[in-house]
Specification:
Elements (H helix, E strand, L loop, with lengths): L4 H11 L2 H9 L6 E5 L2 E4 L4 E4 L14 H13 L10 H12 L5 E7 L2 H16 L3 E5 L8 H6 L2 H6 L9 E4 L4 H8 L4 E7 L14 H11 L3 E5 L13 H4 L6 E4 L11 E6 L5 H4 L12 H14 L2 H24 L4 E7 L2 E6 L4 H12 L1 E2 L1 E3 L2 E7 L7 H27 L1
Parallel strand pairs: 3-13, 5-6, 5-7, 7-8, 8-9
Antiparallel strand pairs: 1-2, 2-3, 4-10, 9-10, 11-12, 12-15, 14-15
This protein binds pyridoxal-5'-phosphate (PLP).
């Protein structure tokens, strides 16, 4: 007989991750995922949830997308991971597809498996290309939990692991503050300015007018490269392939991940200009990893790009964008004391509440009512709201109904907690 959720949680508390287990249990949650398909998943008791977290975009095309599954199975009949040293038709095919959807200044693609790993690689490429070391990044950013990526993100996370970013190599600045950026760049020792096109873990605060174009301009003026972290905002989530390009910018490197996996095979990529990729002209073996350019992964990611490029996909994104814009505005009117701001760019959305823990309360009330969405870790007053691109209108309607009820529940939950 298969195990019950509480048994799995008990075991997980012992051998997997005690604090994570305790944290979920403290909120009355013992979620273990069961069956899953499209925008939905079930827990082990058969309760259904709409996925508005999408693992930050891993499930950009939904759970177990049938076309991706087919590509994966057929691909596994043909190839395996391949050998990371040799070229391959599957690697070339994915590279061509990624270049075709990227700005015309891009020349090379290096594929890896995780977003953080790809950020690390991009920063290394920038350091090599510029022969400089400094990384300028946002203090409200999350770029991953590997070495460089963690130090480039919110410094508190790195400090937890005794990896306090060395001020000779890292400078953290405020989002939307171009003066502060220019002050640092004037030292002329910056290799890369790395910006999450809309910072996810900060709750998707929207950029000021012209932000990305000015980041590009300033970076180039002072000899630095501009790396756009599109791990959460890329792959059509803004309505265009890359969110920074929607805002008119042409970075030197685009880092993508999460949804490139099709939800099945971990894949990430650094898309870069000739200048950024020059190390591959000098010593192509200088950066590598066992699973870089894995052939089965390239087959899966090529299928992801085919689906993203379809007119029907674009139409659905537009439908969802308009639907949520209209309905969230109406919901906001009904809950205006609590839901104080709706942030939206395509299907990238953040719901800002008036309470410092409002995003967390909303996350808990939503899951109790059948929607899984996650608070913004660096600003717990905000809930990240992230549907898959192929969500149907009926499902989006259910999301809105559940949100309406959950907003009321969250306010009550916070009032009860405060009265104790
Ligand atoms: C914006 C952003 N960049 C990079 C990463 C790191 O990706 P990964 O978790 O695949 O290493 C994340 C992960 O959540 C992210 O949100």
């Amino acid at each position: 007989m298969s195990k019950k959720a509480h048994e799995i949680y008990n075991e997980a508390h012992e051998i997997w991750n005690p604090n994570r287990v305790d944290t979920f249990r403290q909120s009355g949650i013992e979620m273990v995922m069961g069956e899953r398909e499209g925008s939905y998943f079930k827990d082990l008791d058969g309760h259904t949830f709409i996925n508005m977290h999408s693992n930050g975009g891993v499930f950009n095309l939904g759970h177990r997308n049938p076309e991706i599954k087919e590509a994966l199975i057929k691909g596994a009949e043909l190839v395996d991971a391949g050998n990371h040293y040799f070229p391959s038709q599957y690697k070339n095919e994915l590279t061509e597809k990624l270049l075709a959807v990227s700005p015309d200044n891009m020349k090379y693609v290096f594929t890896l498996n995780g977003g953080g790993e790809a950020i690390d690689a991009a920063v290394k490429f920038a350091r090599r290309a510029t022969q400089r070391s400094r990384v300028v990044s946002l203090s409200c950013a999350f770029h991953g939990a590997s070495g460089i990526s963690m130090q480039a993100g919110n410094p508190e996370l790195a400090e937890y692991f005794n990896m306090k970013p060395n001020p000779d190599y890292y400078t953290h600045i405020e989002y939307n503050n171009l003066e502060e950026l220019e002050e640092v760049l004037k030292r002329e020792d910056t290799a890369a300015v790395i910006i999450e096109s809309i910072p996810a873990t900060a709750g998707f605060p929207m950029p000021i007018e012209g932000y990305h174009k000015n980041v590009e301009k300033l970076a180039h003026q002072y000899g630095a490269l501009y790396i756009a972290d599109e791990v959460q905002t890329g792959l059509m989530r803004s309505g265009e392939m890359w969110c920074c390009c929607k805002y008119g910018a042409k970075p030197d490197m685009i880092v993508t991940g999460k949804g490139l996996s099709g939800g099945y095979y971990p894949m990430s990529a650094v898309i870069m200009t000739e200048e950024a990729g020059a190390w591959m002209e000098d010593d192509g073996f200088a950066h590598t990893s066992s699973f870089n350019g894995t052939e089965l992964g390239c087959i899966v990611s090529s299928k992801v790009l085919d689906i993203l490029n379809r007119p029907e996909t674009k139409e659905n994104i537009q439908m969802l964008t308009d639907f949520f814009a209209k309905n969230l505005a109406e919901i906001q009117k009904r809950h205006s004391d609590f839901l104080v701001e709706v942030r939206q760019c395509g299907v990238i959305m953040g719901l800002k509440t008036s309470h410092p823990m409002g995003g967390q309360a909303l996350m808990v009330s939503l899951i109790k009512n059948g929607v899984w969405a996650v608070m913004a870790n660096f600003d717990k007053s905000v809930l990240q709201f992230k549907p898959g691109l192929l969500m149907k209108k009926e499902t989006a309607e259910d999301v809105i109904k559940i949100l309406d009820k959950s907003l009321t529940d969250a306010v009550q939950m916070l009032a009860v907690a405060e009265s104790k």
